[in-house]
Write a structure and sequence with these properties.
0% of the residues lie in helices and 72% in strands. It is mainly β and 164 residues long. It starts with a strand and ends with a strand.
Length: 164
């Protein structure tokens, strides 16, 4: 899967202004632990490496590059229609990550990534599906350090998966 997310803040009143853009490169493994005729609950394992661009407050708009890597674990609740041709789902996931650089409101280094997404799968052939997933992601140090404003991004991820 591959995708894009961003957060842009320009709030002069509180003295905070920054940009954080992320490109996602994810692999996914699903395991259905509960399957009914049209409904399933699935476990998700999602290692990822992401590239980032960000602007720190007070740097005159200078764009810096960084990266993230980590692994999310999640639960996916899926409802299928038309003999599994079309599926809709909700995904909740969390996992440890490392970020090489961030805006001032968040420390670099070890962080947590929390995600909520809704998605749609469309069957392309017997075992291959197109997956379209808009979502919201929050990364932060979960209150473990002082500089922990967190970063929230809206994102869209698109990819293909194949049933094995």
């Amino acid at each position: 899967m591959s995708g894009y997310g961003e957060q842009r803040i320009k709030n002069i009143d509180v003295g905070e202004s920054y940009t954080y853009d992320v490109k996602f490169y994810e692999f996914q493994y699903y395991y259905a632990f509960c399957r009914k005729e049209k409904f399933s609950m699935e476990f998700l394992l999602q290692p990822q490496y992401n590239t980032t661009k960000f602007v720190r407050h007070g740097t005159s708009g200078k764009l810096e590059k960084g990266y993230e890597f980590g692994c999310n674990l999640g639960l996916l609740f899926r409802k299928n229609f038309f003999d599994d041709f079309l599926g809709f789902y909700t995904l909740l996931s969390v996992g440890p990550h490392y970020v090489s650089g961030t805006p001032d409101r968040q420390d670099s280094g070890f962080i947590f990534s929390d995600n909520i997404s809704v998605g749609m799968t469309i069957q392309l052939n017997e075992k291959t599906y197109l997956d379209i997933r808009p979502g919201i992601r929050h990364i932060s140090k979960a209150g473990l350090t002082r500089s922990n404003g967190g970063i929230n991004d809206l994102n869209l991820t698109v990819g293909f998966f194949r049933n094995l």
